[in-house]
Write a structure and sequence with these properties.
This protein has a four-stranded antiparallel β-sheet. Strands 7-6-9-10 form a four-stranded antiparallel β-sheet. Strands 1-2 form a two-stranded antiparallel ribbon. With 245 residues, it is mainly β. The chain starts with 6 loop residues before the first strand and ends with a strand. Helix content is 10%, strand content 35%.
Length: 245
């Protein structure tokens, strides 16, 4: 019923009687009801707009804006800081006026929203968002730009999906432009930092992620879980005496 003037429904339990109903649904990501219904009818996950679950599976490739397809793997623990600086060349959603753009940033179940910049095709937000990583098995950050409408549904001005490897690649840089998808034109300028739980630099984590390794196990310790077993003859490295039993 979203967006329609109304619909008559017959009442149950009586011989006659009808009620006229209309409805609207306000999605926290700014999506229209038409965007949500197909996923609901198929039993999909509406909090996952691009169907990115099971991204830790090493046999599954994940799209990266900077690295092509990358293998799945364990996600590093820490905090990802995204700074959505500005946008340019946004499409004109309303033929009679400029857009009033804002953006939504989504990672897992964490959501951030920028302020609305009125009457602009080159909004400057300088919005800093901080996300706890990991959030489930999610590895992708989703950004969508909207035109804020006072009447009716907000219009999408394009979207962008970033893999965790893209965020690590931007760490420490001034910023990078990314084209928006789903529209004829539009770019967003982003910068990012990643604060690793183990105190490592992003450059130390990225190579392992690109190979589908475990960035939380930098020295391969998970393969030596039975290190207290005296029957293990492989030995373990010692700084003073070579391998010890």
């Amino acid at each position: 019923m979203d967006g329609t003037e109304g619909k008559w429904y017959p009442l149950d339990g009586v011989k006659s009687g009808k009620i006229l109903l209309s409805a609207d649904f306000l999605d926290k990501l700014g999506r229209n009801a038409n965007d949500l219904i197909p996923g609901l009818l198929k039993g999909g996950d509406l909090s996952d707009p691009n169907g990115r679950r099971n991204s830790t599976n090493p046999e599954k490739s994940n799209p990266s804006a900077l690295h092509g397809n990358v293998p799945g793997g364990i996600i590093p623990k820490g905090k990802a800081k995204l700074n959505l600086i500005k946008a340019k060349d946004l499409i004109q959603a309303d033929k009679n006026s400029k857009s009033d753009p804002y953006a939504v940033l989504l990672y897992g179940k964490q959501v951030e929203k920028t302020k609305v910049i009125p009457n602009s095709h080159e909004p400057q937000w300088n919005h800093e968002a901080e996300f706890d990583v990991p959030d489930g098995d999610e590895r992708s950050f989703y950004i969508e730009v909207f035109d804020s409408d006072k009447v009716g549904q907000d219009t999408s001005l394009g979207n962008l999906t970033l893999d965790i490897t893209d965020v690590l690649s931007m760490d420490g840089k001034d910023g990078q432009w990314f084209p928006l998808k789903g529209v004829k034109s539009g770019k967003v300028l982003l910068s990012a930092d990643f604060i690793d739980e183990l105190g490592r630099n992003a450059s130390e984590i990225l190579p392992s992620l690109l190979k589908g390794g475990d960035p939380n196990d930098p020295y391969g310790l998970s393969g030596r879980k039975n290190s207290t077993d005296p029957s293990n003859k492989s030995g373990y490295p010692s700084g003073l005496g070579g391998n010890r039993q």
